[in-house]
Amino acid sequence: MNRLKQQLSRIDGKGYKAYKDIQGVYHFPGFQLFIDYVQGDPFASPSRIRIRMEQEKAGYPVVWYKQQHRRTALEDWITRMWFEQTNRFSFKVKGTGKSGLIRVDQPGQEILRRTSAVVTEKYVEVRLTVGLPARGRSVLGNKAEEMLCQFIPQMVRDTLPYAKLEPEKVEERMRLVDNQQEIRARLQEEGWVAFIADGSVLPRESGISDRPLSAGKVVSFQAPDSLKKTISVPHGKPISGMVIQKGITLIVGGGYHGKSTLLQAMERGVYDHVEGDGREYVITVEDAVKVRAEDGRRVEKVNISPFINNLPFGRDTFRFSTEDASGSTSQATNIMESLEAGSRCLLIDEDTSATNFMIRDGRMQKLVSKGKEPITPFIDKVRQLYQEKEISSVLVLGGSGDYFDVADTVIMMDEYQPRDVTAEAKEIAQVRKNERIREGGEGFGDITPRYPLAKGLIPRKGNKEKADAKGRTVIVFGTSTIDLSGVEQLVHPSQTQAIADMMRKLGKKANGGKSLHDLIEELYREIDEKGLDVISLFYGQHPGDLALPRKLELAAALNRLRTLTIK
Ligand code: ADP
Ligand code: MG
């Protein structure tokens, strides 16, 4: 620490570049400070530092981090505590540009694997970004000393040792994530697609806030008796709630009665949520994918022939490519790509679907013959998908009762409460026979693996490589921009940044010999072995603010890259 202080006073008043000299490792009382990267000027992206405390000092019980799900929850907890700490100290020191900034990645409502904090049996580490202070472009050595040698040690003392972590609350969180883990395991064993606990609060505060709608206005979730199951969990009383079985489930009901809200909660249920979120025990199988129409997207050699055939001008739908997909072809593509990436459950909302993809009614079949309609609607494919490939579907559909014929379960949302109306729906389907002709053909068709080439997967820009997230929904990859606004289960910008880094890494492995699916599997195995840090260019140092996306969102980003080239 004294060495750092000396260096800072030596460079005080010099040009900003002199800060480069402080890169290195310093021993502080009780912890180590790593200065991994020093920014080039006060406006550039901030400097990166790490704080490491040995477990002997930190004293975390091994049961907090031995299992992956608990370790992730603990690291997330530490990140949140540090976020509050950094808010107290950030910009207390003032100066030009980012001078005085101290920050750590800020998690949202989901508990994700992150690089912002790391707990091992040897140490605990927190990764921060700081703006080294300057006036104009000259070093403010004293101010830097205040930040690094006073604020940081104080934050470490106040936050990092066992007793400062609020151990009772950590224990409570451990119980929460154990229970979530148990429910996930039960879904797998029982072959359920989702579980929504009684008492859950599904609606969010607003269209731009992911926090729960405040009590009072909320109708909390109550399972109908016929769909209710009770799950014993490791901690506390057994938890009751509604189970969505494998197969085909319809969510029907009047407009504004909470259909989409229920589906959205299920979409997010692929992740674990923090205490107080309202969706703590809304758990969905991890590979469930929301698919929607996304016209305008690019498509590269996807086999959409199960849904689309005989396009005008004889365009190939076994290897369908376009720079500008229509509503229906984009939705077909989104489904086929999700299946290729390994999803076993599709979540579809009428609000974001192409009508002609979802349904073609009896009258329309009479007017427009099958030979003149390239689209085989989802209604004629959804059962084949389940019977032949064991892929389930959950569909929000207030507008078409034709689906009663193909559904296993029909849930009606009625003033935000679910009712089991399966029997009624089946009866109506019996009495009011519909005039449709089934158009699905012999079988579902093939899910065709694709083999990416390195070409187009190298993010070259001039003589540099550039792969960066711009917020949650945009990646700048070389000279092209990827629009992820249609990828609704991407929940945090740090996931998006991780995807950018992962894509750069995949570009080095793609050679036309490995399928997209296998490339992704291989990368995730490496992450499991070496940790999420491994995807970063700064592996071994501060790897940046990254959060693990699902394989499905990584695939989604690759598939939307306009330069992607499939063999
Ligand atoms: P639908 O898809 O059936 O038309 P939505 O799910 O979009 O309806 O919900 C309509 C509105 O009702 C939204 O503003 C939503 O936040 C609110 N809402 C949904 N579920 C609940 C609930 N359980 N309690 C209170 N408000 C809710
Ligand atoms: Mg809706």
TrEMBL record:
Pfam families (alphabetical): ABC_ATPase, ABC_N, MRB1590_C
Please report the stretch or stretches of sequence annotated as the MRB1590-like C-terminal domain: 466-567
Domain of life assignment: Bacteria
Q: Which residues form the ATPase of the ABC class N-terminal domain?
A: 1-160
Q: Which residues form the ATPase of the ABC class C-terminal domain?
A: 168-448
Gene3D superfamilies in UniProt: P-loop containing nucleotide triphosphate hydrolases
Q: Which InterPro entries match?
A: ABC_ATPase_C, ABC_ATPase_put, ABC_N, MRB1590-like_C, P-loop_NTPase
Which SUPFAM superfamilies does this chain map to? Answer: P-loop containing nucleoside triphosphate hydrolases (SSF52540)
Official protein name in the record:
ABC-ATPase domain-containing protein
Source organism of this protein record: Kroppenstedtia pulmonis
| Phylogenetic classification of the source organism | Bacteria, Bacillati, Bacillota, Bacilli, Bacillales
